[in-house]
Structures are given as structure tokens and as C-alpha cells.
Amino acid sequence: MSKLILALLGGALAATAAGAQSQEQRYGFNAIQRDDLAAAEARLNAARLEQPGEPSVLINLAHVYWKTGRNAQAEALYRQVLARDNVLMLTGSNRQLWSHELAQKGLDRARQMASR
After folding, report:
1. Are 73 and 12 in contact, with CB atoms under 8 Å apart?
2. % the chain with pLDDT above 70
3. Quick one: which of 54, 60, 65, 116 is 20 to 30 A from 28 by CA?
4. Nearby residues of 29 by Cβ (< 8 Å), 6 or more positions away
5. Phi-psi category of 113—alpha, beta or left, where left has phi over 0 and alpha has psi -120 to 50?
6. Residue range 14-47, pLDDT digits in tens
């Protein structure tokens, strides 16, 4: 199963459990984890209106697009992340990774699927 991304940026890395829970909900992680991609997409689209350049929103929405066969849309979002500052993020498995690394992995995966 592909990695689920939960981005807790900057000061949010030290968030309380309650704060982390709201971050998980905001960035669609819980819905993605439940494989409720429609709910995740709705939540992420709403978050994108509020924070259009937030890498966690873009990466998670790209993941939803990829999982639902919309590779071109996923690639476009991954490219948006790569065009922005590289920021440290926290994955759903509590690993710290850079936004560009996550976006590049997602872009590579989307390209692989598109070429099949």
C-alpha cells in the first residue's frame, strides 16, 4: 500500500495529540487511511481553498487523484509542490521527509502508472 502522508509543518511538529488529530483530519489522512477517498478529496479541496500552496494538502490530494486513476491531475499537483519551497514534513508513519522528496516519489509513481 502506498505511503499515506500527514504533514505537520513547522511548529505543528510539537502539537498535542488533540492538535495532531485535527491536522490529520484537515489534511485528509484519516479518510485516506480508511480508504474513503471521496471524503478525503472533499476535505482536501476545502483545505486547498484556505491554503492553496500547503504542500500537505497538495500531496495528499495528488495521492487521492492517483488512487482514483487521475494521473495527469496528480502529476500537476506534485509539480506544484516541487515548484515551491522544500519543507520538512511528517508522514503518517511518523517519519520526517522533505516535501520535494515526497512529491518526486509521487510524481515518479504517477508517471509509471501512466506508462502502463
Report:
1. no
2. 76
3. 116
4. 4, 5, 6, 23, 60, 92
5. alpha
6. 333 334 445 656 678 889 889 999 999 999 999 9
Helix axes 55-67, 99-114, angle to 10 degrees: 20
Write the single-letter amino acid at 5: I
For residue 85, pLDDT beyond 60: yes
Please, are residues 5 and 92 in contact by the beta-carbon 8 Å criterion?
A: yes
pTM higher than the cut 0.85: no
Residue owning grid cell 500527514: 6
- How much is the mean pLDDT over the chain? 80
What's the grid cell of residue 57?
A: 494538502
Within its chain, how far is the Cα of 83 from the centroid? Answer: 15
